[in-house]
């Protein structure tokens, strides 16, 4: 039977790897492809959808990773409390919640309860309606895409560093 501490290390490291993959995919493949859309309004709607879905997944994987690694560190015996667990958990937290708050404030953090009007107001800064389709500024959409690409590239770098630390740490534990 596998040790629960080993399982939490594995779950934390795999979640960090998935976070790295999502961020790299968004910055290197998805966002550059948005520039090929025919209109600025469709690019704006697609970017808003990508940002919403990405934030949800990034926060989930970062939380799972950092919580499982912190749990592993706190439950481990004295000889099993390796500092790489804390550093890897810190990288997961910084790549997820840290960068999200630094670049976007509390705007994209999900809340437990929202009324329909406050949810519409929260989405109004990125969602485009049919009436606003003619007034969408392509340069602003392009600037937002490049900003989001930089954020995702930094996130991929930080989470990738944490993932490498986790893999090397697990490898060292098994040796």
From TrEMBL:
| TM ranges | 14-37, 58-78, 84-103, 153-172
Q: Which residues form a coiled coil?
A: none
Determine the domain of life of the protein's source. Eukaryota
Membrane topology type, per the record?
Answer: Multi-pass membrane protein
What coarse category fits the chief subcellular location reported for this protein?
A: membrane
GO CC terms on record? mitochondrial outer membrane
Write the record's keywords in alphabetical order, separated by commas.
Answer: Membrane, Transmembrane, Transmembrane helix
Q: Where in the cell is it found?
A: Membrane
Q: Name one GO biological process term.
A: macroautophagy
Q: Which family does it belong to?
A: Belongs to the ATG33 family.
Q: What is this protein called?
A: Uncharacterized protein
């Amino acid at each position: 039977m596998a040790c629960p501490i080993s399982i939490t290390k594995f779950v934390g490291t795999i979640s960090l790897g998935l976070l790295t993959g999502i961020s790299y995919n968004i910055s290197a493949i998805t966002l550059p492809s948005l520039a090929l859309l025919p209109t600025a309004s469709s690019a704006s709607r697609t970017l808003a959808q990508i940002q919403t879905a990405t934030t949800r997944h990034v926060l989930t994987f970062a939380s799972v990773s950092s919580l499982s690694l912190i749990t592993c560190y706190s439950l481990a015996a004295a000889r099993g409390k390796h500092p790489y667990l804390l550093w890897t958990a810190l990288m997961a937290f910084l790549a997820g919640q840290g960068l999200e708050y630094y670049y976007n404030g509390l705007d994209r953090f999900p809340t437990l309860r929202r009324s329909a009007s406050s949810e519409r107001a929260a989405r109004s800064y990125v969602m485009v309606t049919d009436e606003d389709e003619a007034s969408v500024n392509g340069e602003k959409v392009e600037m937002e895409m490049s900003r989001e690409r930089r954020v995702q590239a930094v996130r991929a770098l930080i989470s990738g560093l944490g993932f490498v630390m986790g893999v090397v740490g697990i490898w060292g534990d098994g040796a």
